[in-house]
């Protein structure tokens, strides 16, 4: 059942539109509002699949209604109803986010086609949101511990926003998985996710890598080159190990966050970018600030949302699930049947000191699968998983 609201101050037009839609399909549930203010109140209290809205109305005109709806419930398609003298305004509403407009008196075929197309779009939006709830298995976070459950809940809350996120935790804990999950569940998931390992790029090249450069900016700059911020436009940039970034590059990142603009190295031209920034570090940034190696103003810009990823030693209850996950994944990669781990082998692995965290566990699981017999036993763990 599709729920449609008609906002129109002329009673005759309301009746005609209601009659047309009601006769077109029993799946259309049509409601009416006689002015913009009443319409907004109904939209606040109900979930509509489509709103047909007149442009010229008392109390609140159609443009004001459109702007309000886009703030309240941006996913609801709006079709504007325009009189002959309102066509310029109707066209302008398209720029403000209206799905379409129809002229008075409404042409039957035009009206019904527009309504069908608008409802189809709404259904696609809903389906896409549902799909985004199901994160790709490639970046699935494995675990039922309280710490991992808290991270999953946090991601559910913040993914759909553009809030900047700072992910902290030791090496090998899966900080990049959190970044991927945030991106995939966000409204930017159709855009790029650009990853930058700040620790792997020499300090003299980091600014060029992030912001690009123009030809002649330095000796090896043979042509203009876009940076990672430009490549991430419309999507997300993941700045991994941001604690290793030079102070000079930090200053430019801060400007990019403040102004949503970047400048290529060697250029004074601003380039506007629309990028969500997710950063990660294994360092204590507050300590780095105290020792003059990290900008405090940049920290506060990045740490709108803080997500702490725990060490594997702090979530040992997740180790059996992780072993099962890795065993299945490794068997698929090797084209072999999945090898089981005995209960005693799993218990022994749970008691290990995992200084390398999940990355180390995965390597040990692969080693045991390769070197053990039909089943990974306690003796196999003692023999092959020793530190």
UniProtKB/TrEMBL annotation:
Q: What are the residue boundaries of the Response regulatory domain, all occurrences included?
A: 3-119
Under PROSITE patterns, the record lists:
RESPONSE_REGULATORY, SIGMA54_INTERACT_2, SIGMA54_INTERACT_4
The modified positions for 4-aspartylphosphate read 54
Q: Does the keyword DNA-binding apply?
A: yes
Query: Domain Sigma-54 factor interaction, which positions?
Result: 141-370
Keyword line:
ATP-binding, DNA-binding, Nucleotide-binding, Phosphoprotein, Transcription, Transcription regulation, Two-component regulatory system
What GO MF terms are annotated? ATP binding; DNA binding
One GO biological process from the UniProt record?
A: phosphorelay signal transduction system
| Annotated protein name in UniProt | DNA-binding transcriptional response regulator, NtrC family, contains REC, AAA-type ATPase, and a Fis-type DNA-binding domains
Q: Record the organism.
A: Dokdonia pacifica
